[in-house]
Design a protein that fits this description.
This protein has about 350 residues and is of the alpha+beta class. The chain is built from seven helices and 15 strands. The longest helix has 22 residues, at about 35-55. 1,6-di-O-phosphono-beta-D-fructofuranose binds near residues 103 and 126.
């Protein structure tokens, strides 16, 4: 009798849901009470609801634009509005979130009846340009603590460096739905299983490789880059066997998707400043800080090109910043070119 070639997976690992993982204290937040656990479950609930809408988008007349323009000057997609509304509704419910700042809204949303001491920043649906063409998009979020003895939160309460985040994550709506989370120590991923209605642990203790061989940048902007960025770009494409160059180019155009690939496989994602976006295109509070918090927790690096993203002092709610994230070695190479 020939030996069976397939053996069943280790079932003992089954059943590590996000909730179990949190309740077993795997996400340590100093001084956290059950409130943080509950808040994280609400963020996960919002991701579950959004993934359901995204996956049926083509059938439910929620593709296309609303005809409005948001604070970023972008045409608003119907799914942007749905995702934004879903985040607000989910976070308002239990009163743990005192206020939410969203990429889609000019001003923060305050929850006056809240009792909890947390603030949430979010890009409810990142990668808007890819929504209608069924390419991976996602939700990005960060959680800050808020001291209620300071009185009700204001817009100023959000203008803090990324170092003050207590938790950050993103949920990618790609070939599968994966929620990546960190509280600063260890990055873990949970894959959505619609049949069980649960997020299950699928990526435990993710480490960003020290060096990669993929670079991700919108080459279409090259005419707008400064010479230093162009020199780096030429260097990364120069053949050098020892250094695994030329690097392979990958660019989805959704930060969540490009960052997720870079986090798992290594390499570098860069959205540097250019003549069209002299401050950079991506938003510090909703996109850069949560992404940087995740990469640093996974042993990667996140830079403006010359300084850590997490040390950047926000001057206003919708501040933009150059974002260079990825493997330590690759981001440091980029920084070396910028320092020339
Ligand atoms: P939003 O879709 O949330 O506005 O995010 C901006 C974004 O789509 C990022 O996801 C992505 O990295 C970048 O812009 C793509 O920009 P470009 O089209 O200029 O390459």
């Amino acid at each position: 009798m020939p030996k069976a070639s397939w053996s069943p997976p280790d079932i003992s690992q089954a059943g590590v849901t996000l909730e179990t993982f949190i309740l077993e204290g795997m996400f340590q937040v100093p001084g956290a009470t059950g409130t943080f656990t509950s808040l994280l479950n609400q963020v996960a609930l919002a991701a579950k609801l959004i993934t359901g809408r995204v996956r049926r988008a083509g059938l439910a007349d929620v593709l296309g634009f609303t005809g409005d323009t948001n604070i970023q000057g972008e045409n608003v997609q119907k799914l942007d509005v749905i995702a934004n509304g879903t985040m607000i509704a989910s976070l308002k419910r239990r009163g743990h979130c005192a206020a939410l700042a969203s990429e889609e809204l000019q001003n923060p949303v305050f929850f006056p009846h809240a009792t909890g001491g947390y603030l949430v920043v979010t890009d409810p649906l990142d990668g808007s340009s890819n929504i209608d063409v069924d390419i991976s998009i996602g939700t990005i979020f960060g959680i800050l603590r808020y001291d209620r003895t300071e009185g009700p939160p204001t817009e100023q309460s959000f203008l803090r460096t990324g170092r003050e985040l207590v938790c950050a994550g993103y949920c990618i709506y790609g070939s599968s739905t994966v929620l990546m989370l960190t509280t600063g120590r260890g990055v873990h991923g949970f894959t959505w299983d619609p049949s069980a209605g649960e997020f299950f642990l699928s990526h435990e203790n993710v480490r960003c490789p020290e060096k990669g061989n993929t670079y991700s940048i919108n080459e279409g902007n090259s005419a707008r880059w400064d010479d230093k960025v162009r020199r780096w770009n030429a260097f990364i494409k120069e053949p050098n066997k020892q250094d695994e160059r030329p690097y392979t180019h990958r660019y989805v155009g959704s930060l969540v998707a490009d960052a997720h690939r870079t986090l798992l496989r290594g390499g570098i994602f860069a959205y540097p400043p250019d003549t069209k976006s002299p401050e950079g295109k991506l938003r510090l509070l909703y996109e850069a800080n949560p992404t940087a918090f995740i990469f640093e927790a996974a042993g990667g690096k996140a830079s403006t090109g010359s300084a850590p993203i997490l040390d950047v002092e926000p001057t206003e709610l919708h501040a933009r910043v150059p974002l260079i994230v990825g493997s330590k070695t690759d981001v440091e190479t980029f920084e070396r070119f910028m320092a020339e």
